[in-house]
Amino acid sequence: MVRDEIKKIIEKAAEELGLKASRVLIEEPKEKNYGDYSTNVALTLAKNPMETAKEIELRIKNYELGIFDKVDIVKPGFINFFLSKEYLQKQVSEILKNKNKYGDLNIGKKEKINIEFISANPTGPLTLGNGRGGFGGDVLSNALEKAGYDVTREFYINDRGKQIEDLKKGLYKGEKRTAAQIQKENQKFITEKLKIKFDVWFSEKSLYKNKEADKILALLKKKKLTYEKEAAPTGGQGALWFKSTKFGDDKDRVLIKENGEYTYLASDLAYLKNKFERGFKKLIFFWGADHHGYINRIKAATEALGYKKEQVDFIIMQMVSVKEGDERIKMSKRAGKYIALEQLVNEVGLDAARFFFLARAANSHLIFDLELAKKKSQENPVYYVQYAHARIHSILAKYKTHPVIRPGAQSNDWAKLLNHPSELDLIKQLIRFPEIIEDIAKDYQVQRIPQYAIDLAESFHRFYQECQVISDEKEKTQARIALISATQTILKNTLNLMGISSPSKM
User: Fold this and answer.
1) Which partner from 222, 290, 299, 435 sits 20 to 30 angstroms from 55, CA to CA?
2) Which CATH architecture does the domain made up of 2-83 adopt?
């Protein structure tokens, strides 16, 4: 990644100046006149950032790396980097050589990560909220695997507790199926229709069948992390409480109620222990907005079990509503008023459903524009991206044979023909792909992928309008065929990450 190369160059220059650049932030400026990449490292290293920035710039120029066309210093000490066209031209061969492996990283070093998502109570059809977490969890799993992690996708089946009892009592309007029947149907829908493949379907009931819940409570008692309170007037046992405030929670939590019923937290503790004992170093949970208050108690439980709070991460999915004309429909299972996920997917198609659910950050309210999702035009962002892939396929089909250029060939003279501004801009977009993977691996913000797909499609469509791919100039034709072949590869990789198809025609 060019961003990593820039970081190493800056660290080397800083070291020569006797400075330690422990945290070098490389960003893409919002305005192109500030370069392709920029850093504020000089502002963090010294009292006189302008002087330090100039010293770093001088050393970078002395390295003669061929990466930069120029390096600029801007007050109060920013260093801006402009990539050279020679460097950009070489990247096309790299993409063609690596194909679908382009963007593979080793950040994760095969560390085991468990990602739990959807985990819907089997009380009815899956809602749009379940879909948001489902697609988000699936795509985050794909991205983390691309980044080098060993990912396990897990569905936690809440098949015991109050909601299951409410289902039996008929408290969910219009629902006449048993929890087992609903779960079986949901599982089939998730696997076959949503194309989400879970590695583990974990039953909450198994924690009690295997006495794991009892064992975890015994462990907490042994650690003196429980106590009884609120003894019944009859002289019976009081509720059993977990000393979660000892680990940063705002109040202690009940593990067993006075009536002997185990709470969800008892299950959660046993489940946490089960996951860590399976060798996972990091646990990621996709939860609905109504579960935000559970974060502190789960972090407390993690620490109480002898693990680090940093080993658990939570992605809270905000509410989903559907925009149909001027009407917004809010979802509520208990009230019996909601659009089932299956209904929406049937109406707009899986590709559009995935793209629209992924397009906004998890912590922001999502308004699903039903009419836009159904449009078969470039107004629809998923259509716009897929059309770029289909257009490339059409051009390659017209060319009939794939480029004579072979990746890794000794001469890269053909690449020198890629010097039009829109060609170079397209290459800049292509080489952002590994950086998108790296950023998601750090903060789990998967909405970067659909946005990147739009940016890449936009760059390609602009290139297509400004540059004739197939012409009488054989060498230039072959160079541009190589460029669009590389673009097709990255578009397909991006669509694959989102679980969206790459059509050959539209």
Assistant:
1) 435
2) 2-Layer Sandwich (3.30)
